[in-house]
Amino acid sequence: MEPVAVKNISDEEWIRIINKLEDRNSEFECELNAVMDVASIGIQITDETGVTLRFNKVCELIDGIKAEDIIGRNMRELVEEGIYSDSVAVECLEKKIPIARVQKVNGKDILATGTPIFRDGKVFRAIVIAKDVTEVTNLKKSLGEVKYAKNIYEEELELLRKSQLDNKGMVTNSVKMKKVIDLALRVASVNSTILIQGESGVGKGLLTEIIHKNSPRATKPFIKIDCGAIPEKLLESELFGYKKGSFTGASREGKIGLIELANTGTLFLDEIGDLPLDLQVKLLRVIQDRQIMPVGGKEPIDVDVRIIAATNRDLEEMIRQKKFREDLYYRLNVIPIVIPPLRERKEDIPSLILALLDSYNKKFGFDKKITPEVTRLLIRYDWPGNIRELENIIERLIVTSGGKYIEVEDLLDNELDFLLDKISVDQALGDIDYKELMGSYEKDLLVKVMKRCKSTKEMADLLKVHPSTIWKKFKSWGIRLEFKNDFSSPLNR
Q1: How far apart, in Å, are the Cα atoms of 478 and each of 13, 106, 382, 467?
Q2: pLDDT of residue 167
Q3: pTM of the model as a whole
Q4: What is the pLDDT at residue 322?
Q5: What distance in Å separates the CA atoms of residue 342 and residue 349, rounded to the nearest whole number?
Q6: What DSSP assignment string belongs to 331-392?
Q7: CB contact set of 224 (below 8 Å; sequence gap of 6+)
Q8: In whole angstroms, what is the distance from residue 240 CA to residue 243 CA?
Q9: Which among 184, 337, 453, 485 counts the fewest CB atoms within 10 Å?
Q10: How far apart are CA 469 and CA 82, in angstroms?
Q11: What pLDDT, on a 0 to 100 scale, did the predictor assign at position 29?
Q12: Residue 15: CB partners within 8 Å, gap ≥ 6?
């Protein structure tokens, strides 16, 4: 049977009840345990040296610590390990007066009131009443920020919301890519033409989808045209459509072009550098006049499209070679966005590896992991094929590796030995901060483990480390420990 909360009892009254039962000793052990269990507040009792004797269920919930992990331990040790920022129990025992303070416990703000209990003129016990005030603290902070800079605050919240909800697949930790995404989100709300440039495989198509999903046209058509994949003879009719009987082999009913299909939505022209010169002229008219002329047609058709173009080619060099129209380039390059190659943002690689492992494990029903040695080699590699090449190699390793862990031997078995000697160790250490990259990998890993566990102890058991190591790591990162709640408490009602 679950305990029932006793309401309308002040903190002072709780202390008097506990003190009386403690004073009557073991004869009333069951009564004291019952009082502790039905309390709707956190109650901790220590002896005169600061060693925890009792720790009720509500205290477990508030502090995020199991009673079995704290009973018998001195509060001074827990403070040294970083679990508690300080201890009101120790302070009230030393000063022999009641102490009240907001302290940090596992990243949460806890209002703790410590009261010393005397017997024969000497301090005998310390009773600590704990209340979670994290939400109150956060609310005060949020209200203060809103009052200080309301417009800026709301704008950043909107960008954060978009980045969390609509940027599926765009994994990044690097400053360069965060600036790219921030720019993309800011220009998504307007209809200006965008030119995205970057090497093959860096994610130009994915960034275009992010822009569309965060634009006012999000519910309208999104039409992608790969200018390099459609044969030149068919490209015009595919783009602009045609009227019936326009040419030999044409459909009797005619055909609507892809540009017209994108009406009211977004038109994505991928590999725009492969567009033939004669069609560049027609595209320029679409951008200027927002009209298209189907093949064999006599009347122009109005279209309302937002145009985003992308290329991995140097359009300015193509202009000098007379292979790309300068006027079209300036019409497309209203808002330029350049995505850096993966070799210039290697701090993204650990997060990308984790995301790809998770994705392919789910796809194929595996639970494979990657060793630190292989991760280090993947970080060192230059990735000329960028994210697309990384995706292919991770998928290959997951599918072909025989064990639970992907090891260096798997690279050799899959003819990926070029990962072993592409860059020398000295060169790698000169180009990247390996410690920083592995730190990013460690943080991503621990956060993922935390989301699957119910307590710090469970995390520690899974990772085979001491709980204090985990607490100190999260404290240094400024990340709050949040676990699955498996407690049944009056506070949850």
Answers
A1: 37, 11, 32, 17
A2: 47
A3: 0.54
A4: 93
A5: 8
A6: HHTTEEEEPPPGGG-GGGHHHHHHHHHHHHHHHHT---EE-HHHHHHHHHS--TTHHHHHHH
A7: 205, 208, 268, 270
A8: 10
A9: 485
A10: 9
A11: 60
A12: 115, 117, 127, 129
Tokens 């990998």 label which residue?
441
With a CB cutoff of 8 Å and minimum separation 6, the contacts of 143 are none
List, for the chain, all residue ranges whose pLDDT scores fall below the cut of 50: 1-7, 24, 26, 146, 148-150, 152-154, 156-168, 422-431, 486-493
Instruction: Report the distance separating Cα 377 and Cα 419, nearest Å.
Output: 6
State the pLDDT at residue 489: 32
C-alpha torsion sign, points 428, 434, 440, 444: positive
Amino acid letter at 157?
L
Cβ(242)–Cβ(255) below 8 Å: yes
Looking at residue 88, its amino acid is V
Q: Helix or strand or coil: residue 126?
A: strand
The CATH class given to the 344-452 domain equals mainly alpha
Every domain of the chain and the residues it spans: 11-132, 175-339, 344-452
Give residue 101's pLDDT.
83
Q: What is the pLDDT of residue 206?
A: 92
Q: Which residue has tokens 């993966």?
A: 342
What are the strands of the beta sheet with 52-55, ordered from one edge? Answer: 52-55, 42-47, 122-132, 108-119, 99-105
Q: Is 317 exposed, middle or buried (0-12, 13-18, 19+ CB in 10 A)?
A: exposed
Q: What are phi and psi of 38, to 5 degrees?
A: -90, -5
The helix/strand/coil state of 486 is: coil
Query: Is-same-fold flag (11-132; 175-339)?
Result: no
For residue 92, what are its two tokens?
A: 């009230």
What is the rounded CA–CA span in Å between residue 247 and residue 241?
12
Asked whether the beta carbons of 135 and 57 are under 8 A apart, the reply is no
Rg (CA), the chain: 32
User: Measured at the alpha carbon of residue 302, what is the angle toward residues 296 and 305, in degrees to the nearest 5?
Assistant: 115
Looking at domain 175-339, its CATH class is alpha beta
Q: Write the CA distances from 333 to 178, 192, 193, 279, integer angstroms.
A: 21, 10, 7, 18
Place of tokens 């300036």: 330
Closest residue by Cα to residue 46 from 115, 95, 110 = 115
| Residue 85, pLDDT score | 86
Report the CATH architecture of 11-132.
Answer: 2-Layer Sandwich (3.30)
Q: What are the φ/ψ torsions at residue 288 (nearest 5 degrees)?
A: -75, -45
Sequence-separated contacts (24+) of 77-85 with Cβ below 8 Å: 81/467, 81/468, 81/471, 81/472, 82/468, 82/471, 82/472, 82/475, 83/467, 83/468, 83/471
